[in-house]
TrEMBL record:
<protein>
    <submittedName>
        <fullName>Maleylpyruvate isomerase family mycothiol-dependent enzyme</fullName>
    </submittedName>
</protein>
<dbReference type="InterPro" id="IPR034660">
    <property type="entry name" value="DinB/YfiT-like"/>
</dbReference>
<feature type="domain" description="MDMPI C-terminal">
    <location>
        <begin position="147"/>
        <end position="227"/>
    </location>
</feature>
<dbReference type="GO" id="GO:0016853">
    <property type="term" value="F:isomerase activity"/>
</dbReference>
<dbReference type="InterPro" id="IPR017517">
    <property type="entry name" value="Maleyloyr_isom"/>
</dbReference>
<keyword id="KW-0413">Isomerase</keyword>
<dbReference type="InterPro" id="IPR024344">
    <property type="entry name" value="MDMPI_metal-binding"/>
</dbReference>
<dbReference type="InterPro" id="IPR036527">
    <property type="entry name" value="SCP2_sterol-bd_dom_sf"/>
</dbReference>
<feature type="domain" description="Mycothiol-dependent maleylpyruvate isomerase metal-binding">
    <location>
        <begin position="12"/>
        <end position="139"/>
    </location>
</feature>
<dbReference type="InterPro" id="IPR010872">
    <property type="entry name" value="MDMPI_C-term_domain"/>
</dbReference>
<dbReference type="Pfam" id="PF11716">
    <property type="entry name" value="MDMPI_N"/>
</dbReference>
<dbReference type="Pfam" id="PF07398">
    <property type="entry name" value="MDMPI_C"/>
</dbReference>
Amino acid sequence: MTDHAHDLASVQEATERLLTAVAALDNAAGTRPSRLPGWTVGHVLAHLARNADALANVLDGRPMYTSAGARDADIERDAPRALDVQLDDLRESHAGFRARAAEPADWTRTVELRNGVTDTAARVPFRRWAEVELHHVDLGIGYELEDLPEEFTEREIDFLAERFGGHQEVPSTGLRSDSGRVWTTGGGAPGGPVAVEGSAADLLGWLAGRRDGSALVVKGGALPALPPL
C-alpha cells in the first residue's frame, strides 16, 4: 500500500538535494544543454516548477494543465530566466505543492493527470518524487542514476514495468537486477520471453529512456525497443 506521507517526505529530501546542487551553479548554467533533447538546463528547471503547480492542481481536482500547448508555452517562457529566479520559483512551487498535500483529504480517491491518465491520489507524491529525481539527473550537473536512493530506483522500476506491462509494442520481458530483484513487463507483442539483466541503475535508465541499454545483458532475443513515456 502506498504511503503518501513517506513519499512526501522523500519529495522534500529530493527537492533539497536539487536546490542545493542548482544553487552551486553559475548563472550561465541555465543556457547550457541538458541531457533532454532540445532542452536547456533552464527548460528542465522551468518544467520542474510548473509540474509542482500542475500536481497541486491534480490534488485540488482541477486539470493538470489547461492544455498541452499552454504547458509547453509556460516552459518556453520560463526557461531563459536567471538562475536565482529559477531557484525562487522552484522553492515557491514546491511549497505550494506541499501545502496542498498537507490538507486533509481522501487519499484513496481517483485523480486525473495528463492525457486522461488516472491514478489514486496517494500515488501523486511518488509521481512528484520521480519528476524531481529523474530531472535532477537530466540536468547533467553531476547527479547520476547511480546516485538515486535505492528505494526510489526499485520503486520506479516497479512503476515502469507496470506501465509497459501488456504493451502491444513490447514482447514478454523479464528483468533481473544485480541484487537479485526480478520484474516482468511487456507481453503484448509477439516474441520473447526476453531476459534483461544488469544493475538497477542501468535497468531504470533503459526503462525511463535515459540510457540505450547497451550495458545490459540480453538473452532470448534483441533488447526490446520501448515506446516513449
